[in-house]
Amino acid sequence: RKPSKITWDAADAEKSGFPHFMLKEIHEQPQTILDTMRGRYSYETGEADLPDIGLTPKEFAAVDRIWIVACGTSWHAGLVGKYLFEDMVRTPVQVDIGSEFRYRDPLVGKRDLFLTISQSGETADTLAAAREAKQKGARVVSIVNVVGSTLARESDGVLYTHCGPEIGVASTKAFTAQLTALYLMALHLARVRNVMKEADGKAWLDRLVRLPVLVESVLRREAEIVAIAKRYYKKRNFLFLGRGINYPIALEGSLKLKEISYIHAEGYAAGEMKHGPIALIDRDMPVVVLAPRDRLYEKTVSNLMEVKARHAPVIALVAEGERELGKTADAVFTIPETHPLISPILFTIPLQLLAYHIAVLRGADVDQPRNLAKSVTVE
Amino acid sequence: RKPSKITWDAADAEKSGFPHFMLKEIHEQPQTILDTMRGRYSYETGEADLPDIGLTPKEFAAVDRIWIVACGTSWHAGLVGKYLFEDMVRTPVQVDIGSEFRYRDPLVGKRDLFLTISQSGETADTLAAAREAKQKGARVVSIVNVVGSTLARESDGVLYTHCGPEIGVASTKAFTAQLTALYLMALHLARVRNVMKEADGKAWLDRLVRLPVLVESVLRREAEIVAIAKRYYKKRNFLFLGRGINYPIALEGSLKLKEISYIHAEGYAAGEMKHGPIALIDRDMPVVVLAPRDRLYEKTVSNLMEVKARHAPVIALVAEGERELGKTADAVFTIPETHPLISPILFTIPLQLLAYHIAVLRGADVDQPRNLAKSVTVE
Q1: Quick check: A278 and B104 CB within 8 A?
Q2: Do B379 and A264 touch (CB under 8 A)?
């Protein structure tokens, strides 16, 4: 494998005028997403160019099944990856939590691609999972941020997220960089396995390269999120609802709020609400609904009406130009139009900002939340 | 398929002296587990005998992959099924939420076994998933309680849970009957696919037939759970932690509490705590820990110590004869010793009782929780 160098230094790790590292890192995302894509695709051929990926196109073509194993926020990225790969690559994906994978004699085989995701590359449970998969003969590829980390060194291939050091304990820019890496990897797999044509690869790249600008446009509307945070920051419980590829983003939005504001927030697949959790709903539990304009839109609106009927304050993230939900929800934030598979990054940004501003309003120590370490290097 | 008759009548649906249907149904479980097993196994051959299962042993042997799709509590049973089948049958299992499965053009194939689980047999999302799987050529087998329900009629094979009518909206006896059916099915698959020897099949049956007596012994200690409920019923947030095959039971325990007491309870894979949720922990959030004596025991103890260090009240469900956790936890309930794969049913019982007694102490309407319907026949 070619050596790769990431150039970052101490100055990058300063707050650059932001009150917290977390907010600085949230605002770096247009750049870090761009950096993670840069030089890794070819418009001419509609392909991703991932020289350190470790497997030849022929080896990728022979893969029977894909595993993704990770912990915490990286696990949420892995769940997005499942929807992405199954849709784009048409190959079954099994996603597992690092600490769960290790202890069940998993059915990993020699024809499996084993993908792990970890910002630090030192997450103990993920590292142990990678070692076990390797021992069982699987090829291991890792999406990692820290160059030269143990996971990067021990994997057959690496896809680095080029997002620089992440100081805030609650992961933000590392998460969207992981998603960006997954988009590149899905494109790579789809093209080398011949399930995506050149023209579709180009169309996919067209969408990807627009992401930094779209993320920037969301960040410029931070004041709207501040206003929403001010209305609801005193609530002690939240629900986050999503469907399909944005279900993991509901989990991630709730995890951010848990981590830094100590609010008991929980993410749910929207369709599961009526199987129990809706009993919880009352005027003291704001519900954040992720509602992209896709084939599930009508279902999501119907879930929302049920929630409204139980008097919960509803915060809706909706596609631009959407009116129906706008009339029903108590607070609305619009998300720029994009392909449904790419929408998770755009839904993530306002949820990061919401968690951040609620935590600040509650007087919590955003960059050093209680009880948490940046990388979990113990089991 | 042979017609099968379930004999129940209106008298069975009365409360028989219990203050609520839910409590009556919790106490029926030794009988309903027995009824679900009765006549469905052969000690002589160490096999399950499931005449309505719809597939021949040869067809089962040809299965490439198993899907389990369900909603709510039945989905939790499906998650237990995944651990069970992967361990006993050594075949990969994909578990999906009904409402999530339908909308992602899933990779179901002709060599797949598609298992659905629904008490009513009318759950809209599960039914639609079964129809889609059938259309894609998969063989559909359903675990259903209501005889002649739509799902039962439309499936290639049925495994009825013989637990009688369930009136309480929060499912209890139907859940443990579903688990019992999954144990029978795992045994059947393991034997017809030749991954389990006759002697091991017999040993497995030995453990299964002891279940009703063990469940009865847990129910006789209801007063211990009442005492725990009295100490913590005023808390507004709970966490439930489990690992491996008992992780879904942590989800189910938290769902029961949500449904009938309106407490915001959340289930978590214990190993994920340090990746975020531990920030939530303080003296106002009791943590219920499921700690069977298995190879994960030491890890679970270590998770528990972290929680204790953050001053959370800890309610530990531990294996009989266990002392270490007993000294650390604030409340302890012991679970009779059994095989780790069978322990989920035994862990479920005290969690049902805990949810019930907390709800009663809070004055909630246990049998008719707000906002919930018994069967979700709309999407």
Answers
A1: no
A2: no
* Packed helices B29-37 and B173-192: angle between N→C axes, nearest 10 degrees: 30
Asked whether the beta carbons of A20 and A366 are under 8 A apart, the reply is: yes
B118, B76 Cβ separation under 8 angstroms: no
Note the pTM of the prediction, 2 decimals. 0.94
Q: Does A246 touch chain B (CB under 8 A)?
A: no
Query: In this complex, do A270 and B86 lie within 8 Å of one another by their Cβ atoms?
Result: no
What is the phi/psi pair of residue B138, to 5°?
Answer: -75, 155
Q: B276: which chain A residues are within 8 Å (Cβ-Cβ)?
A: 72-73, 170, 255, 258-259, 372
> Which tokens belong to B67?
């899907």
Detail the DSSP E strand segments found in B71-152.
93-97, 112-118, 139-144
Cβ contacts below 8 Å, chain A against chain B, sum to 161
Residue B215: other Cβ atoms inside 10 A: 24
CB under 8 Å, gap of 24 or more: what pairs does B231-234 form? B231/B313, B231/B330, B231/B331, B232/B286, B232/B313, B232/B315, B232/B331, B232/B358, B233/B261, B233/B357, B233/B358, B233/B361, B233/B362
**Interchain proximity B272–A71, CB inside 8 Å:** yes
Separation of first and last alpha carbons in chain A = 30
E-strand spans in A4-92? Answer: 41-42, 47-48, 65-70
Within an 8 Å CB–CB cutoff, is residue A100 touching chain B?
A: yes
Contact yes or no for A193/A89 (Cβ under 8 A)? yes
Q: Determine how many CB atoms are found less than 10 A away from the CB of residue A373.
A: 13
Which of A98, A310, A372 is nearest residue B278 as measured by Cβ atoms? Answer: A372
Q: If you average pLDDT over residues A270-284, what whole number do you get?
A: 90
- To the nearest 10 degrees (0 to 180), the angle between helices A29-37 and A198-219 is 160
Q: pLDDT tens, position by position, for chain B (379 residues)?
A: 555 565 555 545 588 889 999 999 999 999 999 999 999 999 999 999 999 999 999 999 999 899 999 999 999 999 999 999 999 999 989 999 999 997 777 889 899 999 999 999 999 999 999 999 999 999 999 999 999 999 999 999 999 999 999 999 999 999 999 999 999 999 999 999 999 999 999 999 999 999 999 999 999 999 999 999 999 999 999 999 999 999 999 999 999 999 999 999 999 999 999 888 898 999 999 999 999 888 778 888 888 888 888 999 999 999 887 777 777 899 999 999 999 999 999 999 999 999 999 999 999 989 888 888 777 777 6
Q: Does A341 touch chain B (CB under 8 A)?
A: no
Give the CA count within 13 Å in the CB-facing half-sphere of B148.
Answer: 5
Q: What is the ipTM of this complex?
A: 0.93
Interface check for B295 against chain A (CB to CB < 8 A): the answer is: yes
Task: Give the 3-state secondary structure percentages of chain B, helix then strand then coil, rounded to 5.
Answer: 50, 15, 35
